[in-house]
């Protein structure tokens, strides 16, 4: 978990240090790509906690979602319909769901650890 | 297990890069200097000329200052008098004579439609004409008998044009201009926008170069109650 936060910070830092910038025209695409990537990342974390993490699914899903989001935005822009809102809605919805599940898993794990500790404490006194 | 974390961490890294890219989105593409060498040279030359003129002005003012600082009482008074008369000339408080151009605005009935009636000079037309004359090197101006100074107002009041709070008469109107280069001014005015604008309003503009043109002095009140001397510090360059 900490490794992920560290890498996120590292990515932001490196990106800011490098002299690379994109024109404002593509800001829509980029924000949606970020959203899609976040969604996939949280999905991966959730799968990790549920012990169903599949590396292949995660990697393909990561890039596929980003590409899909960008294509959707592009089509929406061509048609003059804010189609990217659909992607925002879908990703946002999933984002919240995933976060909720991750929170519950973390809470469960914490409680389990607490119970384990208590057990350990009570065991020697019983002896 | 470790591989999983690494993949997740790499994904996080990727997101981090994208976020930083999003942070550094350029709102506007920076404007590039697209002038070629020739244009830059011309611009440089213009700036140098400007510098020269400013330097000349500065030198003149420094001479005046030196005169003032002269200890001889008579010289100081003389400089003061000279300065005052120069400033009066600048402010338009003296009658001036010199070479210049006389412009006549005449109603042009030949071009006029029957329905249009008598051509009327408006304050807007006069303003534009005076602006253009100033651009093309006019030093002192007078419309009819009204001297144009820095704060002269040209307004439409109840159908007639007021200059210096006084109405000027109907067409024909004479505009007298003092300038160092009368011929050049005439050439410029021949192709000017206000010539066209006047023609649209059925007013013909004729120009004549004169050796001695006299512009009257400004007779109104100089309203200086709202004018302040800005902060001035001794020896401030």
Task: Describe the overall structure.
The complex is a heterodimer of chains A (127) and B (237). With 127 residues, chain A is mainly alpha-helical. Chain A has helices at 2-17, 27-49, 55-79, 84-126. Chain A is 84% helix and 0% strand. Chain A is elongated, with a radius of gyration of 20 Å. Chain B is of the alpha+beta class and 237 residues long. Helices cover 44% and strands 22% of the residues of chain B. Chain B contains 6 helices and 8 strands, in the order αααβαββββββααβ. Chain B has helices spanning 2-23, 37-69, 73-91, 123-135, 182-190, 193-200; strands spanning 96-107, 138-143, 146-148, 154-157, 160-163, 166-167, 173-179, 203-215. In chain B, the strands form 2 sheets. Chain B has a 5-stranded antiparallel β-sheet, with helices on one face. Chain B has a 3-stranded antiparallel β-sheet with strand order 4-5-6, covered by helices on one side. In chain B, helix 2 packs across helix 3 (73-91). The mean pLDDT of chain B is 81. The chains are: A mainly alpha (127), B alpha+beta (237). The interface between A and B is medium-sized, with 36 and 27 residues.
What can be said about this structure in brief?
The complex is a heterodimer of chains A (127) and B (237). By secondary structure, chain A is mainly α.
């Amino acid at each position: 978990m900490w490794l992920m936060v560290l890498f996120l910070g590292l990515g932001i830092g490196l990106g800011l240090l490098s002299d690379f910038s994109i024109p404002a025209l593509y800001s829509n695409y980029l924000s949606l790509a970020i959203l899609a990537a976040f969604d996939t990342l949280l999905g991966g974390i959730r799968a990790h906690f549920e012990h169903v993490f599949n590396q292949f699914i995660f990697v393909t899903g990561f890039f596929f979602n980003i590409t899909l989001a960008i294509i959707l935005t592009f089509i929406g822009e061509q048609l003059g319909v804010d189609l990217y809102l659909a992607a925002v809605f879908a990703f946002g919805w999933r984002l919240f769901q995933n976060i909720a599940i991750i929170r519950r898993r973390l809470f469960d794990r914490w409680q389990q650890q607490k119970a384990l500790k208590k057990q350990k404490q009570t065991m020697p006194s019983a002896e | 297990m470790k591989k999983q974390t690494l993949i997740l961490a790499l994904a996080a890294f990727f997101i981090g890069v994208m976020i930083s890219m999003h942070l550094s989105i350029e709102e506007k593409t920076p404007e590039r200097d697209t002038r070629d060498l020739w244009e830059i040279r011309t611009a440089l030359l213009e700036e140098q000329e400007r510098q020269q003129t400013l330097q000349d002005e500065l030198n003149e003012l420094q001479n005046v200052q030196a005169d003032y600082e002269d200890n001889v009482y008579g010289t100081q008074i003389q400089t003061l008098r000279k300065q005052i008369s120069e400033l009066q000339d600048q402010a338009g408080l003296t009658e001036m004579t010199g070479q210049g151009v006389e412009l006549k605005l005449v109603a042009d009935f030949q071009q006029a439609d029957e329905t249009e009636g008598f051509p009327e000079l408006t304050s807007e037309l006069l303003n534009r004409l005076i602006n253009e004359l100033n651009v093309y090197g006019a030093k002192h101006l007078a419309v009819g008998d009204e001297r144009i100074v820095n704060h002269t107002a040209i307004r439409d009041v109840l159908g007639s044009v007021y200059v210096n709070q006084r109405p000027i008469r109907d067409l024909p109107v004479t505009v007298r201009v003092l300038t160092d280069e009368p011929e050049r001014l005439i050439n410029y005015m021949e192709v000017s926008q206000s010539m066209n604008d006047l023609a649209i309003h059925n007013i013909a503009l004729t120009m004549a170069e004169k050796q001695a043109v006299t512009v009257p002095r400004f007779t109104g009140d100089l309203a200086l109650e709202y004018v302040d001397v800005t902060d001035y510090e001794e020896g401030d360059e």
